[in-house]
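Exercise 7. Given the encoded structure of a 452-residue chain, write a plausible sequence.
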């Protein structure tokens, strides 16, 4: 890799990559903390609905007030400082901004931000993976039409998984499976913001002191976020989910080649080329030593006797037959690593993960029995939980994507565990996010209809 040297060159030339950030919460603050330490980068502006909260976050990560005191975007450029405000449209339309980092965590707003950035010729690094999960393939197409790059955010697990998959394929290895780790037991699927800290092993007081959002953390715990991130991985890499979605088989790092191989060979996979998530807990709740809860992994295949002999000669951990091996990272550094995406997109024109098709979907399912008139509260809440599904099945059943399952009134009763259909909820068909999703469904369903 030579991204650092390219950034140093841009710094020496006085021509830094000019970045705009939308949303200055935890993820964005982690990236912003690294900006002063990265050559060739100028954070021109930050747009946040609450500039005061954003300012507090900047001070928390060590920025001095004078660094983000530019009165306007133009003055920020002249003074090489950062403008902080609430006008995201001004930020994405400013001619000097090269790349926009979308980090609001609001999937509906994120789509508006990305589409506007494309119209103004800006590259986009999409931190809000929920938006990519429900319409990433269309966003990727819109970016290509505009001649810009759309990318998943490095540091978040989907982009890191994409990197491992690309490494294996570029080295000539067939990818058998890839995914992330997770702390999982089946009953976590019914967890709510009231129960999340007990499952996580934190007290409510510890969570309060840490400023932790129970709904957000519950979206990880209950399986919604793994479904979202696995959707992004599948649509970017060509890997596909099992028909029933994620199964969360328990596995340590050493067990990955054993567990992530086809069932007819002693493993847990439905098929080769599968996206999956492994659990850091045995089904009886026992913690697995040397787990990969916070990491990512890929399992690949040695197709010949010679390759498998090389595995053995160099001490590669494999399954008993020596055919399947793995590579992994035990941790990811979240926003601290987003600079890799910014540099790759701006300097190489290459995304760190980008949808190439619509292969998987994160659909909304009922967390409990629900009655007409109840309001859906989205991922991590009390009514909805996400489930990974093959895109073909989601389209055939008319399933409601998880990213849009918030703020809609239920029109029909839905039983716990059942997927919501579009016809089950009162959806605002004029909302941009709904239009974009419906357009994507039409585009990607057309080839199948034509073939029929």
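Solution.
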């Amino acid at each position: 890799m030579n991204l650092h040297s390219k950034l140093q060159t841009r710094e020496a030339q006085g021509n830094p990559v000019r970045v705009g950030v939308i949303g200055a919460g935890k993820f964005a603050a982690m990236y912003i903390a690294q900006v002063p330490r990265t050559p060739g980068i100028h954070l021109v502006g930050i747009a946040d609905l609450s500039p005061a909260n954003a300012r507090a976050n900047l001070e928390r990560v060590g920025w001095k007030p004078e660094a983000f005191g530019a009165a306007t975007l133009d003055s920020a450029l002249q003074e090489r400082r950062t403008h902080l405000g609430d006008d995201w449209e001004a930020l994405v339309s400013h001619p000097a901004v090269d790349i926009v980092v979308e980090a609001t965590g609001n999937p509906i707003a994120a789509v508006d931000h990305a589409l506007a950035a494309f119209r103004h010729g800006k590259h986009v690094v999409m931190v809000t993976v929920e938006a990519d999960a429900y319409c990433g393939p269309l966003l990727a197409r819109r970016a290509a039409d505009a001649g810009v790059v759309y990318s998943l955010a490095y540091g978040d697990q989907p982009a890191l998984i994409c990197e491992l998959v690309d490494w294996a394929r570029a080295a000539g290895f067939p990818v058998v499976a890839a995914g992330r780790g997770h702390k999982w037991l089946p009953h976590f699927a019914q967890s709510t913001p009231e129960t999340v800290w007990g499952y996580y092993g934190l007290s409510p007081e510890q969570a309060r002191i840490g400023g932790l959002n129970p709904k957000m953390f519950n979206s990880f715990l209950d399986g919604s976020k793994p479904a979202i991130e696995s959707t992004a991985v599948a649509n970017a890499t060509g890997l596909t989910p099992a028909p029933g979605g994620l199964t969360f088989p328990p596995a340590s790092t050493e067990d990955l080649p054993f567990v992530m191989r086809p069932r007819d060979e002693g493993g847990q996979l439905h098929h080769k080329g599968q996206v999956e998530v492994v659990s850091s807990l045995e089904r009886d709740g026992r913690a697995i030593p040397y787990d990969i809860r916070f990491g990512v992994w890929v399992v690949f295949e040695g197709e010949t006797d010679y390759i498998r002999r090389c595995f053995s000669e160099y001490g590669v951990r494999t399954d008993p037959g020596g055919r399947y091996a793995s590579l992994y990272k035990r941790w990811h550094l979240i926003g601290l690593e987003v600079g890799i995406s910014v540099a790759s997109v701006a300097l190489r024109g290459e995304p760190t993960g980008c949808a190439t098709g619509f292969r998987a979907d994160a659909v909304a399912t009922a967390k409990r029995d629900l009655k007409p008139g109840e309001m859906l509260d989205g991922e991590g809440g009390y009514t909805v939980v996400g489930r990974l599904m093959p895109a073909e099945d989601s389209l055939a059943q008319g399933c409601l994507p998880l990213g849009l399952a918030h703020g809609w009134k239920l029109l029909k009763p839905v039983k716990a565990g059942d997927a919501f259909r579009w016809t089950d909820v009162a959806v605002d068909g004029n909302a941009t996010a709904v239009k974009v999703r419906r357009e994507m469904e039409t585009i990607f369903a057309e080839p199948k209809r034509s073939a029929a």
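Remark. The radius of gyration is 22 Å. Students should compare their own answers with the one above.
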